Amino acid sequence: LAIAQASGGTKVILLGTGTPNPDPEHSGPAVVVLANEQPYLFDFGAGVVRQAAAMSPQWGGKYPGMAVKNLRVAFLTHLHSDHTVGLADLILTPWVMGRNKSLELYGPEGTGNMAKHILKAYEEDIRYRIYGAQPANDSGWRVNAHEINEGRVYQDDHVTVTAFHVQHGTWPNAFGYRVETGDKVIVISGDTRPCESLLRYGQGADILVHEVYSMKGFLKKDEFWQKYHAANHTSTYELADIANKLKPEKLVLYHILFWGATPGEILSEIHRTYDGEVIVGEDLMIVE
User: Fold this and answer.
1) What is the pLDDT of residues 60-75, one digit of tens each?
2) SS3 call for 128
3) Which pTM value belongs to this model?
4) In whole angstroms, what is the distance from residue 109 CA to residue 123 CA?
5) Active site residue 82
């Protein structure tokens, strides 16, 4: 299947760059790859649908493809709540706004069960909207859940998406994603400590979107939290080493654990050994 060249170039839109910490400046983790005005969503943290709406012309944005009703294909890295808490919003709000096709949802084992229980929780709302005075369509609320393994998980005229296992603590199924479009290769780490699979699937990435934590903040933590974070996440120093091996055109930081560090300090820690382009991600940032 040939992948169409993206009109105007593929764009990576950071809808949310945050962590479980309820920082008002950083919504929950969510990244869109926009190819030929088709949005492909990776994770759906708190605020995901409103952040997407902000990029659409209805709310002053520039991208018609980001109209909420177009959120139809989504991928989940793992089942931690900060990455999934927006799922009810993603299922229901685009439907209310006119989505007339099922949500195609890809993720690890347990993804289908999560979607099923959300639909059960909202069954009265769904019934009222379908059979009430202003009936909605009977398809846009539905979810086709695909529980994935490593390898190619999705392909259409605009993208090919490959999942790969990453090491996020003791999660048995945590994934990163490699997204190939007509003009770019984008690799999204999900939550992970450094691991060989990321180095393997990250080869040739134009844009590497990777989680990170501040080394300065890490050194101030007690032994328990240092052990925990080292097993679950990637430090600035470790990420510099990864970037030196992969050499992406752009390294984009998200899911950033600042722990009191400034963006400049995060950059300084990475640039200590890596001299490539590094972007400290911010919500609603566009990377091309």
Assistant:
1) 999 999 999 999 999 9
2) helix
3) 0.96
4) 23
5) yes
